[in-house]
Each structure stands twice: as structure tokens, then as C-alpha cells.
Amino acid sequence: MASFSLPTIHDNPDGGWGPSTSTNFPEEFKFKDIPYAPFSKSDKLGRVADWNDLSTDNRQGGGAQSAQQNRGSGPAGRRRDGAQAFGSGTASAFAYFHAEDESSFSIVDNKGPAPRRGSGFNRGRGSARGAPYAGRGGFNRGGRGGPAGRGGAGGPQRNNAMGARRGWRDWEKNNRTRESSVVISSSWQVLEEVEFHRLAKLRLEVDEPEELDTYGRIFAYDKSYDRVTTKTEKNLQLVDRIKYNPTTSDDPVIQQLVSKSVGNVYTTDIILSVLMCATRSVYPWDIVIVREGNNLFFDKRDGGPFDTVTVNENAADPPQDPTPPNPNNPNEKPAVPETAVINTANSLSLEATYINQNFGFQTVIETPPPAPVDFAHPNPFYGPDETEPLASCGYRYRLFDLGITQDEDIRLCVRTEVDGYIPGQGDPRQGQGLVTIRALNEFDPRSQGAGGAPDWRTKLDSQRGAVVATEMKNNSCKLAKWTVQAVLAGADLMKIGYISRANPRDNTRHVILSTTSIRPTDFAAQLNVSLANGWGVVRSVIDMCMKVPEGKYVLVKDPNKPVIRLYSVPQDTFVGQDDDEGSDEDEAEV
């Protein structure tokens, strides 16, 4: 047994407590091991022992020492004793820390601390992790909404709200950076850089467009899909049809309009909608701009971001692509488990594109009655050698006047698309009863990137408003672009289908759960989409490009910042890439 010797006791001859003030201490021991600490009468000492924190930290492997160091701190680093007072930050210098007896310490009671009713909102943290229940407006109202009632004790929602269940590698989310949609060469020169907050202040009122010409054939929409519910779901079928989506410069009709000098700016509704909704975009995109004389052409790249549909782009925790493997460490584990590969951003985008095309092909009636409607001219992209049937699609070429004064000559020619018509709503050739058909898709409400979406099979019929509100929050940019495209095409209605996986772990089989109809102008008001702001952004970009000399340029949205940049690029940029890919990329064959 270790020996123990009593220290020297300095008696106080005055009869008071502690050593006498007249006792002579050696100077080198006068303030030994005593740190400087400012004093304030309002200092809070805190608890002597916090057994709740001790039991929690011990079960997580932290031990009593971790509880001692974190004494007085609540969840998310908040102090339970109130705000820190002056000088109390140095109180830990006088704290006692266990050194040797902690390895054998254990606690018998394995029950968790009693749940406390939260106050305020847990803004997005619980619902963004795939919680099965979402509070009002996308917030989890502290403690409510759990499956066990008001307290929510013992349910998965409570665990998510307290941060106990996190997404996979959640600590790396803030450190991940997205790659640009196009490889920016060192030879490119930055001409302009515009922040989104400057674009949000632009306004331009544009009059109704002028109809130039129409092409294609459209079929009647099948109204039986409006009666589909979660109890009478229909399988999404694979329909073999051809639908063309060529870029602006490859459109033979636009080339004819250019030769007639109908306008001086040419583009398509898909490219134009991205510009008009640029301030809502999160993912990167790029637009190739060519100036020839006084004419501007807005083009897309083959295989670029305009050929696919995004999923949950505006969610608080959007789907992530796996980080590329480290070539220096071949034994490193993949960034995403194999079971979650189907829920990555790229996989979900391809799945959503497949769903949108097949839903549009399936929901029209190809065998009369009612009979299909032929526009003024046949499909301009369908060659005589083609044998596969065409999809229902009509092209309307429209001219918008973007001039502010009478002296300005800014005429924008746009190729717009419609997907069908409603029988009995008037003559579709005159622009009556036209519809655009789109689809929202559900993948797995419990996976990372679901954005707190409720289960559609249980909520779509009874709480459709909650489902729509969540989709408007998570897919704000996508829905805004769809709405702008419908407005540009002059469609009377938008048909939006709700499509889910037959099995959350299988991304090849899908079912149609419901279909809704809405007027584009009404939906734009619900989404807070300002067409005047969109036209202001378009006019600003046009003015920016009209100031530069003839040549080729690329407008790039920064992948990680709300900024767009205009680059000057060599004339042969993307030319070899397009030749290698071939002209077959212009058509979407499903």
C-alpha cells in the first residue's frame, strides 16, 4: 500500500479560518498552479454532477470524464443554465477530472433520459433525414408529429428530430462540392459575372406572343387517369415512341426563320425556362451562345443537363452522388453503399427522365375516337426512313417582342412544345384545350435526399396538400420550369402525375398513384414564379451578349455558388464532341 504523509499545516494564531495572512510562503510557491480567472458576482458555477449527461455519454462510450467535461451543456451545444457570464469560461481550469478509475465504471440503469418537450421549430433537420412524418410547412414542431402522440417518445420521428439517426456520412455533407456541368478550360475568358440577388431585382413586362407556325401531331388526353387513386393504381408501362428534342441551331424550321429575318434571338422553351428560373437553380448548367451578326442562338449541349430531369434539387439535403474513389487508396470503401446506388442524384435523374417520357406516352389515346389532331405541318424532324411511331407532340413557334421602347428591336423566336389536347375544349389548332404532361416521382421516403416527403400511398388521397407543399419545396426549380414552359407554349392545362416505385428498392417498376390538373397561371402564382422577373433575366442576358463581338460563348451556372458567368470560348469548342456523339443524340427514344 502506498505511503501517505500529512502535509504541513499552517496554524492561524488569530483563530480564524485558513492560514494566517502573516504566514510567510516561499515566493516561488505563492501562485503555483493557480490560473488567472476574472471574477464576477454573476458567474454561474453550474451543476456539481449531471447524471443525465453522464449516463448518456457513458452508453455512447464517452465515460464519466466526457460527461464531466460537457457538464452543463444540452443538445446541440446549448447551456441549460442560461447564458455564460463573464469569467465563467475559465471555471473548467479548477475542475476535477478522473484519471484512473474510469475504465471500470459502468452504469446499471440502461434507460434513456426522459424526453423533454421541445420548444420552437427544428427547422428541417428532422424531416430532411427522411422522417416518416412532417410538421406544418415542412417543419417538425418540437415533439409533435411522432407516431406515439404529442411526446413522440420511442418513435423514429423523435430520434430523427433529436439527431440520433443521421444520413450516411452526414458529417461530410458540408464539405462536398459539386462539379461543373462543363469542363472549363484555362483558355476560356470570363467576360461577365452576375450574382443571383442582382437577377432577382430585374423586371420586364412582355405582351402576348405572335404565332408563327405549328408542326406535329397530338393525341387526346385519356381522362381515365384523372380518376386514378392509391387504391386503384395503374402500372407505368414501357411505350416505344420517338420524341425529338434537337437544339436550336439544328432546327430546320428555325433556320428558315433566320433566312427570313423573322427575329434576332432564337432558342427553345427548355433553354428559355432555365434562364427565366435561373435564380431557383442549385445544380450546375450551361448554355452555349453563338452570335452571328445581329443574331443570337441559345443552344444546349448533347448529353448536357437539359436532357434529364432533376430530383429534389431544392431540398435542404438533396441527393448526393458518390465521391470518386481515391486512386492512391484502392482499398477505400465506396462512398455510397451498393444498396443506395439507385438513390444517388444521377440515378434518380435518369429514373425521373424515364418516368416523364413514358407517362406522357401512356396517358394519351392513340386509337380513335377521339381522333388525333394534325397541326399545319408534319413533324419537321421525322425522316422518311424512320419506321418507329412518333410520340404525341406538337411544336408551336412563337415570337416575343422584348423591346422596351419603339426604337429597340429585340424579337425572340421560341420553339415551344405541347403534349396533347383535351377533347371538347375547342380547336387545338387555334391553341384551345392544349395540355402539357409531366410527372413527379417518389423513390424512398426513408433514404437520404428524400427531403422529408410523406409516404404518398398513405397521404396522397387524404392529405394531398401536404404532399404538394413538400414537392413545391423540394422541387421548386423543376416545377417552375415546367410552369414557364406551359405558359410559353400557351397551354390551357398542366397534367401532373404522381408516380412511385412498386418497391422502394427497385427503380425499374413504377405505378401511377394519382393525376392532377392545374392551370399554368394559377400554378405560377402558387409557386411565386414571376414571369416579369424571368423576362427581365432573359433581356439582361441578351443585352450582355449583344455587347460582345461575334463568336461563341458559354453561360455557366457556378456549381456551388448562386452566380452565373459568361465565358468567351474558341469557335471550335464542343464541335469535335458533337461529331463523335453523332446526330442521333437529338432524339429521345424510350
Automatic annotation (TrEMBL):
It is found in: Cytoplasm. Residues 319-328 have a biased composition (Pro residues). It comes from the Eukaryota. GO terms for molecular function: mRNA cap binding; translation initiation factor activity. Residues 135-155 have a biased composition (Gly residues). Residues 305-319 are annotated as: RNA gate. Its main location: cytoplasm. Keywords: Cytoplasm, Initiation factor, Protein biosynthesis, RNA-binding. Residues 53-72 have a biased composition (Polar residues). InterPro entries: eIF3d (IPR007783). Pfam families: eIF-3_zeta (PF05091). Residues 116-131 have a biased composition (Low complexity). The keyword RNA-binding applies. One of its GO terms (biological process) is formation of cytoplasmic translation initiation complex. One of its GO terms (cellular component) is eukaryotic translation initiation factor 3 complex. Residues 1-25, 50-85, 107-164, 307-336 are annotated as: Disordered. The RNA gate region regulates mRNA cap recognition to prevent promiscuous mRNA-binding before assembly of eif3d into the full eukaryotic translation initiation factor 3 (eIF-3) complex. mRNA cap-binding component of the eukaryotic translation initiation factor 3 (eIF-3) complex, which is involved in protein synthesis of a specialized repertoire of mRNAs and, together with other initiation factors, stimulates binding of mRNA and methionyl-tRNAi to the 40S ribosome. The eIF-3 complex specifically targets and initiates translation of a subset of mRNAs involved in cell proliferation. In the eIF-3 complex, eif3d specifically recognizes and binds the 7-methylguanosine cap of a subset of mRNAs. Belongs to the eIF-3 subunit D family. Component of the eukaryotic translation initiation factor 3 (eIF-3) complex. This is Eukaryotic translation initiation factor 3 subunit D. The lineage of its organism: Eukaryota, Fungi, Dikarya, Basidiomycota, Agaricomycotina.
